[in-house]
Amino acid sequence: MKDNKLHIYNTLTKKKTPFIPLNSPHAGMYVCGPTVYGDPHLGHARAAITYDILFRRLKYLGYNVRYVRNITDVGHLLGDANDGEDKILRKARLEQLEPMEVAQYYTNRYNKAMEMLNILPPSIEPHASGHILEQIDFVQKILDAGYAYESNGSVYFDVEKYNRKTGNYGKLSGRNIEELLETTRELDGQSEKRRSADFALWKKAAPEHLMHWKSPWSEGFPGWHLECSAMSVKYLGEEFDIHGGGMDLMFPHHECEIAQSVAALGKESVHCWMHNNMITINGQKMGKSLDNFITLEELFTGQHPLLTQAYSPMSIRFFILQAHYRSTLDFSNEALQASEKGLNRILDACKQVKKIHPSDKSIYMETGEALSINDLHEKCEAAMDDDLNTAVVISCLFDAVRIVNAILSGNATVAEDDLHKLEKLFHIFLFEILGIRVAETQSDANQEAYQKAVDLLLAIRQDAKLRKDWTTSDTIRNQLTSFGFEIKDTKDGVDWKLN
Predict the structure, then answer these.
(1) What pLDDT digit, counting tens, does each position of 452-479 carry?
(2) Nearest 10 degrees: CA dihedral of 430, 431, 435, 436?
(3) Is 91 helix (H, G, I), strand (E, B) or coil?
(4) DSSP state of 24
(5) How far apart are CA 332 and CA 343, in angstroms?
(6) What is the DSSP letter of 415?
């Protein structure tokens, strides 16, 4: 295992702490996945990419990582707590489908989009509907501990009693629970809950509810918060290293998870809580509930009023990684265009570095200053260890691009060992850690034939230049340029790329 100085910001303690796994070299991480009732959008992509970077970094450092990311296919109500219709049931009713048809369809769509974004699949992807027995058992433990009550076939968590005994409710989100409880006293029979702050562990199903299971309390279904407590403990144990999710899940979802685990197990399960920040549009959170989201398919096809073009999955990934995961990221078409250009600059440098011929020394010709290749590698390592600071890593990669361009233009030379380090820098941090993938749009055979055809045209152009046949030379260059090719005459020959 590599020497590890990785520090992660723990949302619970509000500070960066060294990552020290409970059972090294094993590491366990649980991340809240999607509620599968609609197409994935840019906000889903940010969460998935954030924890993909963590997964990749931990694997790179030598850990044996068990990564669990759930699928919510039951119990998530429209009010994100206890109110309204189940989101998947509502979609099923509108489209006249079985609820599991809806869940399976959008699970497939989500996983396909994640694959296009080059997000590594989790080790385990449990579904809430497949773990009903575990959730019933978890509810019973909370009841046995005295922190829940049954009411008309439903079971609710007693927030006031829990907070009175532990003082813990609200510790993650910083909510003033005493004030919340003071303003949500007994509901005088208007609800089966004692207080509106209480949340559902199990809900009795109405006759028209299509998704329900037998339990000791009623024919019903589990509450939304319960699934993550039950499934994380099942696959990672009663204590595990990292729990991640979007910042919008901090309250009530993750706050309720903490309370459930303490009530059922007598201790907190999670050692480090991580939360990625939001993507905003005009300063407002992007989300399905606000109807201001852009789906990934719309981004990939360009079919949205806010977009002027289609964007590749890697352009989207690069756009998200240019900001630190804990900072807000504001969407705009202009920002996406800038990210696309920046990524193309780096990928072009990766191609060009293979054409560089090594020299005896690694220096800038004009100043005699040594190239900073070793420094860049150390800065990238330090940035990743500093709470996964991908923005700094990308800045270092742009510095590497400038070194490549200086060498190609004759303003610098590079020794053979440093040239290998430069190639390694791109390989490790751009491809392995940041997960950027070079798009393959053609078969290898077609790609080779395509390249040979362009090289042949440029060879004919070069021969025309030697014969001073400027008409032929200019015609070939102008035609290739009109097709989107960029032609560069260098001291070592001709370079080209297709924009």
Answers:
(1) 788 888 888 888 888 888 888 888 888 8
(2) 80
(3) helix
(4) T
(5) 17
(6) B
Helix or strand run (H / E) with residue 16:
strand 15-18
Cα 15 from Cα 7, distance rounded (Å): 10
76 — alpha (psi -120 to 50), left (phi > 0) or beta?
Answer: beta
Residue 175 token pair: 């909510």
Q: Which two three-digit tokens encode residue 92?
A: 């099923």
The tokens for 330 are 């504001």
* Tokens 């440029």 belong to residue: 458
Half-sphere exposure of 495 (CA within 13 A, CB side): 16
Amino acid at 157: F
Q: How confident is the model at residue 499 (pLDDT cuts 50, 70, 90)?
A: low
Q: Give the angle 367-369-371 at the CA atoms, nearest 5°.
A: 130
Q: Which amino acid is at 452?
A: K
Instruction: Give the H or E element holding residue 42.
Output: helix 42-60
Helix axes 255-265, 132-144, angle to 10 degrees: 70
Q: Identify whether the C-beta of residue 291 lies closer than 8 Å to the C-beta of residue 26.
A: no
Residue with tokens 């993938």: 437
Rounded Cα distance between 180 and 174, Å, is 12
For residue 42, give the amino acid letter: L
Q: CA 136, CA 8: separation in Å to the nearest integer?
A: 34
Query: What CA–CA distance (Å, rounded) separates 353 from 340?
Result: 20
Pairing, β 154-157 against β 199-204: antiparallel
Cα separation values, 267 from 135, 240, 241, 271, Å: 18, 12, 14, 11
Number of Cβ within 10 Å of residue 77's Cβ equals: 18
Residue with tokens 């046949």: 469
Residue 53, burial from CB neighbour count under 10 angstroms (0-12, 13-18, 19+): buried
Nearest by Cα to 75 from 228, 217, 192? 228
DSSP state, residue 427: I
Q: What is the pLDDT of residues 70-95, one digit of tens each?
A: 999 986 666 544 556 788 888 888 88
* The two three-digit tokens of residue 377, written as one number: 């590698």
Q: How far is CA 43 from CA 34, 227, 246, in A?
A: 10, 22, 9
| pLDDT value of residue 396 | 97
305 Cβ contact partners less than 8 Å away, ≥ 6 residues apart: none
For residue 441, pLDDT over 60 is answered with no
Q: Give the model confidence (pLDDT) of 14-51 as tens digits.
A: 999 999 999 999 999 999 999 999 999 999 999 999 99
Distance CA 49, CA 31 (A): 12
DSSP SS3 for 227: helix
Q: What is the pTM of this model?
A: 0.87
Amino acid at 461: R
Q: Is 471 buried (19+), middle (13-18) or exposed (0-12) by CB count in 10 A?
A: exposed
